[in-house]
Amino acid sequence: MPIIAASRTAAVLLLCAAGAAAATTGATPPRPAAGRHAAVLCVATSDAAPNCGPAQVELRRDGSARVRVDDITYHLQLHSSQVEVVLMHGAMQIDEFTVPYEWLGPSLRFTDEERHARYEIRFVEQADRQRGR
Fold first, then answer.
1. Is 5:12 a contact under the CB 8 Å cutoff?
2. What's the number of CA atoms in the CB half-sphere (13 Å) around residue 80?
3. Which element (helix H / strand E) includes 53?
4. Residues 6+ positions from 120 with CB-CB distance below 8 Å
5. What residue ranges of the chain have pLDDT lower than 50?
6. Predicted pLDDT at 28
7. Is 47 helix (H, G, I), strand (E, B) or coil?
8. 3-state secondary structure 54-110
């Protein structure tokens, strides 16, 4: 009987520890669903701090996205590990490159090593929009 009681106590302690660890790390927000989203686009070159500003993003079910900042549009095609980026100014193509990307919760990050440029698209949550962020 003491062995069973000790096993139960150990199991309860393990469950409590797992719950505490999950609470301290917090849940990672999910990737945004297909549709139109408000976002913040941050671009940094070399070791400079990122330059961030508002963007409108349309995520499509086919794995593509359109990120619009004023009259500049980033056409993104997300594959399993790489993103094809075509940068447009109106109807004129400015640049094109393919690089690895990663999702970190609701943020999409990729780096153009050749040009030493880092990009991050931070999707604005509904609560942030209502507060005017």
1. no
2. 0
3. strand 51-59
4. 41, 42, 50, 107, 108, 109
5. 1-25, 127-133
6. 62
7. coil
8. EEEEEECCCCEEEEEECCEEEEEEECCCEEEEEEEECCEEEEEEEEEEEEECCEEEE
What are 75-112's pLDDT values in tens digits? 999 999 999 999 999 999 999 999 999 999 999 999 99
The token pair at 17 is: 């520890």
Q: Which domains does the chain have, with CATH numbers?
A: 35-130 (2.40.128)
In this structure, the dihedral spanned by the alpha carbons of residues 67, 72, 77 and 80, taken in order and rounded to 10 degrees, is -60
> 86-120: string of b/e by CB count within 10 Å (b at 16+)?
eebeeeeeeeeeebebeeeebbbbbbbeeeebbbb
Here the tokens at position 126 are 């509904």
- Determine how many CB atoms are found less than 10 A away from the CB of residue 28: 10
Q: Provide the residue type at 104 as one letter.
A: L
Q: Please say whether the dihedral angle defined by the alpha carbons of residues 4, 10, 12 and 18, taken in this order, is positive or negative.
A: negative
| pLDDT at 60 (0 to 100) | 96
